[in-house]
Amino acid sequence: MERETLQQTKKFFSRLGGIYFCGTLITFAIQFVVFKILHNVVPQMMKNHDFVMLASSLAMYLLAMPMLAFMIQRMPREVLPKHKMSVGKWITAFFMCYTLVYVTNLVGIFTTGILGLLKGEAVRNPIQDIAAGLSPLNTFFLMVVCAPIVEEYMFRKLLIDRTARYGEKTAMLLSGLMFALFHGNLNQFVYAFALGVFFGFIYVKTGKLIYTIALHAAVNFMGSIPLILLLNTEILNEINNLEGNTTEMMNLFVQHSSELLLFLLYSIGVFVIVIVGIVFWALHFKKIKCAPGTVTIPKGQRFKTVILNVGMILYSLFWCVQIVRQILETQ
User: Fold this and answer.
1) Measured between alpha carbons, how far is residue 129 from residues 50, 123, 215, 216 in Å?
2) pLDDT tens digits, residue range 66-111?
3) Cβ neighbours for 316, distance < 8 A, ≥ 6 positions apart
4) Which residue blocks in 80-145 are alpha helix, DSSP H?
5) Kindly report the CA angle at 188 between 182 and 192, in degrees rounded to 5?
6) Which pTM does this prediction carry?
7) Which of 14, 176, 168 is nearest to 101 (CA)?
8) What is the rounded CA–CA span in Å between residue 301 and residue 306?
9) How far apart are CA 20 and CA 22, in angstroms?
10) What is the pLDDT of residues 257-302, one digit of tens each?
11) Which residue among 58, 60, 70, 89 is buried most deeply as judged by most CB within 10 Å?
12) CA pair distance 69, 153, nearest whole angstrom
């Protein structure tokens, strides 16, 4: 392959960022139109949180994302070498992946907590809002089935296939950054970035999207379904209504002992996964190596070339505005 000039490389990333920016605008436009139509056709259904989330997500996954994919596929790409990942290695990756999410989520919670103190009001967490209104079945369909398939295709395969020639590290970091920004809120940004980079590593080393889709689905399941089930149980509301009455609380625990046992086992399971994951990170961290690409961007020029261009700036700025709006939004 002929060596590209920095200017050509910068134009390539600007075009890539511009396409994702256009895809973002298309997504918002389609969702707006769909909601307008639904408000006129079935206004009563717009009061149903499950229906609204389902309509919003399907409008994005079935209409907007295919348009974005069509635009990206016109850009040159490289076919990554395919390597099989054993079941044992996938399980190890899951432990590392979940631990990464757990730890970086704590960083996100701490950050939003500090901002909440400065703001004088807790930063609104859209994930909790979604979890509070969705049924377990819809949560499973949207977060465990749809999101992993579509997001891994859009932010791993399409993106990394077109950027891996500039080096695996560049492709992974860009994949993580654009994936994190796409979530549009600070609560998810930190762990989505870490998760996106890790998924990017798995993809560049295997060339097979099925492994990252499975990891993404497993992480989303662990982080959503148990929470939805907990929020849907009567015991949570009853505990909140007891106002510190010890006797009634003990009676409540006895009456709902099976539910409490399940959540206790879940909590223990999460603790075990995190501890084992930390051990795996300690054992494997030094083994994580990123191969250079066929096109080298000189040190000191990478950020300016990859990020500081019109397309990437537009994409980043749009989502940064959404994140700031989420931080400033009142409860």
Assistant:
1) 12, 12, 24, 21
2) 999 999 998 999 889 999 999 999 999 999 999 999 999 999 999 9
3) 17, 177, 181, 307
4) 87-119, 126-133, 136-139
5) 65
6) 0.91
7) 176
8) 8
9) 5
10) 777 777 788 889 999 999 999 999 999 999 899 999 999 898 889 9
11) 60
12) 9
Question: Hey, what are 61's tokens?
Answer: 């996954």
Tokens at residue 215, please?
A: 């990891």
DSSP state of 121: S
Please tell me the distance from the alpha carbon of residue 227 to that of residue 142, in angstroms, as a whole number. Answer: 15
Q: Which residue has the tokens 């994702």?
A: 20
Write the DSSP assignment of 2-44 as a string of letters: PPPPHHHHHHHHHHHHHHHHHHHHHHHHHHHHHHHHHHHH-GG
Sequence-distant (≥ 6) Cβ neighbours of residue 103 within 8 angstroms: 274
Q: Which residues of 65-78 are buried (b: 16+ CB within 10 A; e: fewer)?
A: beebbebbeeeebe
